[in-house]
Amino acid sequence: MTSHKEFQRFAKTYSRYSLIQARVAEALASKISGSFSHIVDLGCGSGGFFNAYKKPFMSYLAIDIAPEMTAIHPTANGVKTMLGDFNSSKLFEVLKKREFDLIVSSSALQWSQNLDWTLSQIADFKKPVALSLFTSGTFKTLHSIAGISSPIRSKEETVRLLQKHFDVKIDTLEFRLYFSDRLSMLRYIKQSGVSGGKRKLSITQTRKILRDYPLSYLQFEVVLAVGR
Fold first, then answer.
1. pLDDT over threshold 50, residue 1
2. pLDDT of amino acid 189
3. Which of 27, 115, 127, 182 is most buried, by the most CB atoms less than 10 A from its CB?
4. What are phi and psi of 193, to 5 degrees?
5. Are the C-beta atoms of residues 74 and 91 closer than 8 Å to each other?
6. Residue 194 burial (CB < 10 Å; 0-12/13-18/19+)?
């Protein structure tokens, strides 16, 4: 199952389970200096960055591959939603015809099929950027217990690609989200969108986590990049 199909399936509950994404969006928004009139948000989801960004703007284009996500994105004067896939050149051809002065993407680009290519397309606009991406330190202990590798890129690879295409200030954030029991933890992973719909846990692996996971929290690792 692809990432966007999983997001569609859980769209109604996504906002309730996107606690870490909200904190990441707040951290990203806090790093942006100055003000921007026309903003493009790639992989907008249910509006995490929009809710975190408190500065005035004239236009805000919220783009997501899942119609169920754009349907629940907040509305306001100047806000428009659009279906689009940052893995497709079609989206960037459309954006070439738009006026904007800031490109943001919070907690989405880690699911790019070819991050090098996607970042090169964003960099071609030569506009300021504010980007946050989850990296493989997310769910590190859980993956170790289950005996699987992370479906997303390492912090080192992510930083290398960001610095290849942009002149940005890099920050790495680590979060912990605590749970009362392991079943609640697994339910969160399934419905939060953090796993991106990558169903890698077999029944045997799930049972092993329920039995052996040693922590009362999940780990998250995020890279922030702000610059141009």
1. no
2. 84
3. 115
4. 90, -10
5. no
6. buried
| Dist CA 19 CA 177 (whole Å) | 9
Rounded CA separation 216/213 (Å): 8
Residue 139, both tokens: 């769910």
What is the model's pLDDT at position 2? Answer: 33
CA distances from 107 to 56, 91, 95 (A): 22, 19, 20
Pairwise CA distance, residues 1 & 148, whole Å: 18
Residue 182 to residues 17, 186, 187: CA-CA distances in angstroms? 16, 6, 9
The type of residue at 165 is: H
At residue 15, the pLDDT reads: 47
Question: How many other CB atoms are found less than 10 A from the CB of residue 73?
Answer: 22
* Rounded mean pLDDT, 190-201: 64
φ/ψ region of 126 (left if φ > 0, alpha if ψ in -120 to 50, else beta) reads left
